[in-house]
Amino acid sequence: MAAEAGGGGGGGVGSETGRVKRRLHRADDEHQGENEEDMFPVTRRRGGRNYRGGKKVTSTSPWMIGVVSLLGISVFLLLLLALGIVSLPIGSDAPKIQTVDHHFVDEHEKSFIENGDVRKREDQWTEVLSWEPRAYIYHNFLSKRECEYLIELATPHMVKSTVVDSETGKSKDSRVRTSSGTFLQRGQDKIVRTIEKRIADFTFIPVEHGEGLQVLHYQAGQKYEPHFDYFNDEFNTKNGGQRIATVLMYLSDVEEGGETVFPSAKVNISSLPPYYDQLSQCGKNGLAARPKMGDALLFWSMKPDASLDPLSLHAGCPVIKGNKWSSTKWLRMNEYKVY
Fold first, then answer.
1. Which PANTHER family does the annotation name (predicted)?
2. What's the rounded Cα separation, in Å, for the pair 157 and 119?
3. Which of 134, 156, 169, 181: disulfide with 235, CB 3.0–4.6 Å?
4. What is the pLDDT of residue 85?
5. What pLDDT sits at residue 66?
C-alpha cells in the first residue's frame, strides 16, 4: 500500500512538472518570434493587404517607380541640353547660311545671298610679312562674292579721297592721295557685320573699336604717298583714342603696280617675298604686299609697349596697269562711337 501510495503521488508531481515545462516552452517560442519580427521585417498578408507586426504596410507599385524614373531622366537630359554638354543632331543638308532678315538689308545684299553663299572662300592661311613693323597677310580673308558686294555697295557713292587735317581734324583735299572712296556705316548690313566680326576675330580687337569700312578705288596712275595711320594730334583721338592697327583688304587683283609698301621696314634677303621680281619699282623700295583679291593685310601702328611705331610708315604704290579696289578698317584703342 505504501508503495502504491508513493507511486500515485510521484505521478501527480510529474504531470504538473510536464505542464509547467510546456508553458515555459510556449512562452520562449512567442518571445523568440517577437524578436525575429523586430530583427527581420516579415510581411504578412490579410485580406489582400500587407501587415507587419499587426500594422498595415504601404507598398510602391512598379508603374509608379517607372514614372518617377522617366521624370528623373527627362530632367537630367534637359539639364545637359541647357549646359550645352549634349546637342540635338542636325541633318547635313542644313543651309550653309542662316535665313536673312531682309528688313535690314538692301536689294544688293538680297541678290548676293539669293545667288549663293556669299561667304564661301578658298583655303585660308596667314603669312608673316614683317616683324618690324608687325605686318601679316591673311590669304583669302574675303570671298570673291564679298569683294564684289563691297564694290557694288560703294560704287554709287564714290568721291575724291581726302586726308585728315591734323590741326582741325577735318577732311581736306591733297595731292598726296589721288584715289576715290567712300565710307560705309559700321554694321550697315548683315554682310558688312559678318566681315567686321571676322576682322575682330583676326585681330582680337572688338568690333566696337573699329571705324566704318572705307572702300577705295585707284585707277592707273593714282597712288597714296607714304604716311602714318596714327595721329599726332589730340583732336582726332577724342573719339576712340589712338589708331592702333589697320586691316587693308584687297577687293580686286591688279595687273601691275598698286602694292602696299613699307619703306622704313627692316629688310634682309631672307625677308623678301617670293614675288619680289614681279613688283613695281615703287614696291621694291621697302617691304611690299602685292594686291590680290580677297587677301587682307594687317599691320600695327603701335608697338607691343603701346608706343607709336614709326616703322609703320606705308604707301600705296601707283597703279600702272588695271584697277585697284580695296577696303580699309582702322582700329582704335578704345570704343569708337558711331554718331
1. PROLYL 4-HYDROXYLASE 10-RELATED, PROLYL 4-HYDROXYLASE ALPHA SUBUNIT
2. 24
3. 169
4. 60
5. 77
Which amino acid is residue 260, in one-letter code? T
CA–CA separation, 140 and 129 (whole Å): 15
- With respect to residue 204, please indicate whether it lies within any of the assigned structural domains: yes
Cβ atoms 135, 297 nearer than 8 A: yes
CA distances from 4 to 21, 142, 310 (A): 26, 132, 143
Compute the average pLDDT of residues 101-129.
Answer: 66
Position 232, amino acid: N
Look up the CATH number of the domain holding residue 256.
2.60.120.620
Residue 253 CB-density burial (10 A; 0-12 exposed, 13-18 middle, 19+ buried): middle
Digit-coded pLDDT (tens) for 164-214: 666 666 666 666 677 899 999 999 999 999 999 999 999 999 999 999 999
Determine contact, residues 241/331, Cβ cutoff 8 Å. Answer: no
- Terminal C-alpha separation, the chain: 140
Q: Note whether 202 and 141 are within 8 A (CB).
A: yes
